[in-house]
Design a protein that fits this description.
mainly beta; five-stranded antiparallel beta sheet; three-stranded antiparallel beta sheet; 1 helix; 12 strands; 9% helix; 45% strand
Length: 124
């Protein structure tokens, strides 16, 4: 995930100034068709079995997803080019977003899988 959203930048700014912002206790991965700093991932699908998926990260510096993340679809849902993290399973605040290494086309029922270690966040 290469780009922080405006919300995440504000959280980080408050944390660096010792203002103790309320940090997320869980994060959820979303798929979409684009991304922007104010909104995070855009073009998030609705229906067809889609739901954001909780992600657990591991690492001492750069963070990587500890387990596979699976999105299950019950019907065709289009092609997804971006992924983003949110602080809630629905609604909530966008945290970060990035283009996928390869677009994920959902042409019928099936699963889109992000393998362990394939989703990374670093401080650079």
């Amino acid at each position: 995930m290469s780009s922080l959203t405006d919300h995440a930048r504000n959280l980080l700014g408050r944390a660096l100034c010792g203002r103790n912002p309320a940090l997320p206790t869980n994060v959820f991965l979303a798929l979409g068709t684009g991304g922007a700093a104010p909104t995070g991932v855009t073009g998030e699908p609705v229906g067809n079995g889609y739901a954001r998926q909780r992600v657990t990260f591991t690492g001492t510096g750069a963070q990587q997803n500890a387990e596979a993340v699976r999105f299950t679809f019950t019907a065709a849902a289009g092609s997804f080019t971006h992924a983003g993290l949110f602080d809630a399973a629905s609604g909530g605040n966008p945290l970060t977003w990035s283009a996928l290494a390869q677009p994920a086309a959902v042409t019928g029922p099936g699963t889109v899988t992000i393998n362990p270690g394939a989703l990374g966040i670093n401080g650079a």
